[in-house]
Structures are given as structure tokens and as C-alpha cells.
Give the backbone structure.
Amino acid sequence: MYLILIELKDGVKTKERINKHHSWIKKNYDNGYFLIAGPLVDKKSSGMIIADIDSIQEINSIISQDEFYPNDANYEVHKMKANFIASNL
């Protein structure tokens, strides 16, 4: 499992590009790779994804398909282990 933090660079956000980015998220959600995704409400032009993927190579391959990759966003990837999961998720 991985936590992905994404921060868009200044001046790259357009409605068309955000729609493509959301399509990328939905595709990976529908494929079962992304479990939770959404914007960070306390940090402008940023978001997070919790992904259920086995390897960093798979994560990198999926990230490389995002509309803002490689030059228009910063991607921070962290391998994580969920020890506690709320029953209402």
C-alpha cells in the first residue's frame, strides 16, 4: 500500500487538464488500484491518494500516465502499512 501526495506547480491548472487528471484517478480507482483520493483542503493545488499496489515500479508506471507528469507536478510516494482501518470506510 502506498500514500501518494501530489502538488501541482503554479500556472499549470486548467479545467481541461484537471478533467484529464480526474479521469486518470477514476480509471485507477475503477481498476482497484486507488482506494481513496481527493484534494488537500489545507494546501492549494494538492491532493492525496491511497493506493493498493504491490510495487514501487507499478506506482511509477501509473504516475507516469497522469496529465501533469513529469514536469507540472511534484509526486511524493511513501510505502505504508495500515495497522488500523475504520469500519466505516
Remarks:
- The chain has one domain: 2-79.
- The chain has a mean pLDDT of 96.
- The longest strand covers residues 2-8.
